[in-house]
Amino acid sequence: MEVFLAVIALLVMIIISNLLNRFVPLVPIPLIQIGLGMMAAIFPLGLHLRLEPELFFILFIAPLLFNDGKMTPRDELWKLRVPILLLALGLVFVTVFIVGYFIHWMIPSIPLPAAFALAAILSPTDAVAVGSLAGRIHLPKKIMRLLEGEALMNDASGLVAFKFAIAAMVTGVFSLGHAIVNFFLVAVGGLVCGAVVAFLIIRMRLFIRRWGMEDATFHMLLQILTPFVTYFIAEELKVSGILAVVAAGIIHAIERDYMEFSTAKMKVVAASTWSFILFILNGLVFLLLGLQIPDVIHVIYVDTAFSNILVFGYIVAVSLMLVFLRFVWVYLFLKKTDFTSSLLTALSGVRGAVTLAGAFSIPYMLLDGSPFPQRSLIIFIAAGVILFTLLTASLLLPLLAKRDDGVGEENIQLQEHEAKIQLIKAAISSVKEEMTDENRAAAHSVISDYKKLMKLGAALGYNDSWFGPDYREMENEARMIGLQAEREALAQLLAKGEISPEAEFQAQQMLNEMELAITNRVRLRLPVPIALMKRIWAKWVKNQKTKSGSSAEMLRKAKVQTSRAAIDAIQQRITDKNRTAAETVIAHYQAIIDRLCRNQIQPHKLELFHKQKREIMFKALQVERNEVQLMFEQGDISRELAGSLRKFINYMESTSLEEEPI
User: Fold this and answer.
1) Same domain for 194 and 326?
2) pLDDT tens per residue, range 155-181
3) How much is the pTM?
4) Burial level of 410, CB count in 10 A (0-12/13-18/19+)?
5) Do 236 and 194 share a structural domain?
6) Is residue 56 a part of any domain in this protein?
7) Which range is least confidently modeled, 251-255, 262-266, 425-429, 624-628?
8) Shortest CA distance to 250 belongs to which of 230, 264, 220?
9) Which of 661, 453, 618 is nearest to 528 (CA)?
10) pLDDT at residue 506, rounded to an integer
11) Which end of the chain is more exposed for a tag (fewer CB within 10 A), N or C?
């Protein structure tokens, strides 16, 4: 029961951290989550979870790196292969050697092998922390790709160096030649093991599909198990489990791109499932990190053998040494790298949970039974460096990235324009894959709507920002003109006796609802409640139709006439400035007229048509949301642009809800 309550508490803190980040966007989510974890551990009856390094690596690091291997563009990684290897291999070993000697010189009570172990565990950067910072800080794309590629590789090199250093400390025996040979065997073996396991799992999935099992949930479960199985097998074979899951992720990405194994439904399920898993795992990683820090601090704080001020000085000195060494390495050995880019890359070398998990894996005893020297101090320094690098990156990177960011307003709008085109193309592609003989007409209608939207974007141009505030204001004005014309037309129909008072009242209620939707800006932010309101209203109207067929027919004829009146009124108010927005509203009214006229001919088929169209449209919108998340995770768009694109999708969703059949 205690474990269950602890898990629930952690999940609640993930929700709280994301809510706080909305109100305080300047503070990165990792820092908020570390802070919440520390508070949960400090409070009376606080939460205490022991960090098991082996379990942590297989449960958290394996799936996170597997996903990174899938999502990181392989062509860009290949172009940056030399800088990535220089950072992931060269810099790691240089860090172990130089920083290790520096730590031993500064703190003589830490033996040289133990100092090498601390330097090794401090060498890997944290891809999760860097990714969370990049969405807010707008790091240049090339630097972000370099950091992603480095993070995929340097965990393995750092941990292998760490294991050799610990072995040398525990046993007192070390052979440089043996260590070099063993490292390459472990690294290459991990890559080969991951590729083979991934290939076998993919072949198994293909074999299962030939049996007729197309269930997306079943195949998704196999994919989720892949990183855990791969890591476990690699570690049992004494090769790098981390490199194995990275290789498995890359093989799955190749399968996704070239083999066309996944159907549209599988792609949607996979994207949604992995988005949820990564959201949970990323949060848990930093919450667990925060939970460990108070206990680590307490051990050093109460130990009279250490001066607290001096220990904090050690943390600052080691952190600055890491940043300085990283800057010099990047500036000297990476071609075409200027001072600012080198500084950005150096400060982006944030340490994370891998560092602390490795530090906790340090044994308590040496081979002769004596305590491992300064184990608590080593763990404390590791935790302090993590916090120092996170805080430094959070404070300094926004200033440097902003200064280096030469992107003008026009280029930002162009990027938004191109991103919206990409979303529409992804939606159209998903609709085509969902198309069957039964829903072909509805699918073609959705594709036609998307193509009209694309033409609208071309007509507006990227400087007008599709559905931006100015455009929405002009469209809402045109809609209000149409509503007023509809009310006047209803009054005339009632005066002529062409519509009953009951039918006129129902029509006025519908117009009131539309006006409320137009004037209420909250509607764009809360599409789900509006969708529910629409369904309730549609159900009420359907009940009215069941009770009185003549009343329903009056409503249909009245809506056709009021829509034509609205079109005439809007056309009289068209100017060069509002032409595109006005024509969009006119097209909306014309679609209503066409639909109601068809409704007179084949009502049952039309109801099925609209049901199919709604289902296809909502699936396409989900594909668009997944595409936004993918672009954000890959660093192609900023957090602000991702938010703008989500509002764009919400607007399309609310517009489609307005076109419910009467």
Assistant:
1) yes
2) 888 888 888 888 888 887 777 778 888
3) 0.67
4) exposed
5) yes
6) yes
7) 262-266
8) 230
9) 618
10) 78
11) N
